[in-house]
């Protein structure tokens, strides 16, 4: 098994940070674009795609700023994080996604995020 590499993607979002945060940090918001359904119990989030379930643990979150998860079955220090960055000058919002992928899966991982975020942008109109 090869080692996973951390990467970041940045997407401009024409939405208020408060609205964007609700879409990245709540089960109902995540269900709109990230998974078919999302349930949470405490710090455990269950993501459901086409009848298959993946469980992630909430590692950290700061209201209006970021949320970080770790997939339950991963024990290699990897995580995925959604972070909102506001440009001080223009006040434009950007969604920063940090994730990990093996080198030979990097292009596929990036395309998957681009597709997911495209869905998010169409849902929030941003």
UniProtKB/TrEMBL annotation:
Name the SUPFAM superfamilies on file: Bet v1-like (SSF55961)
Q: Which residues form the START-like domain?
A: 1-125
State one Pfam family annotation.
Answer: START_2
Q: Where are the transmembrane segments?
A: none
InterPro entries from the UniProt entry: START-like_dom_sf, START_2
Q: Which domain of life is it from?
A: Bacteria
What is the name of this protein?
A: SRPBCC domain-containing protein
Which organism does this record belong to? Answer: Acidiluteibacter ferrifornacis
Q: What is the lineage of its organism?
A: Bacteria, Pseudomonadati, Bacteroidota, Flavobacteriia, Flavobacteriales
């Amino acid at each position: 098994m090869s080692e996973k590499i951390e990467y970041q993607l940045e997407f401009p979002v024409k939405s208020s940070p408060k609205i964007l945060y609700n879409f990245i940090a709540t089960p109902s918001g995540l269900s709109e674009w990230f998974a078919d359904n999302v349930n949470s119990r405490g710090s455990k989030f269950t993501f459901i795609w086409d009848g298959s379930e993946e469980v992630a643990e909430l590692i950290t979150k700061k209201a209006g700023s970021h949320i970080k998860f770790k997939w339950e079955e991963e024990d290699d220090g990897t995580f995925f994080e959604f972070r909102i960055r506001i440009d001080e000058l223009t006040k434009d919002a950007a969604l920063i996604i940090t994730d990990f992928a093996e080198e030979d899966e990097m292009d596929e991982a990036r395309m998957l995020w681009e597709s997911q975020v495209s869905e998010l942008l169409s849902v929030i109109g941003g």
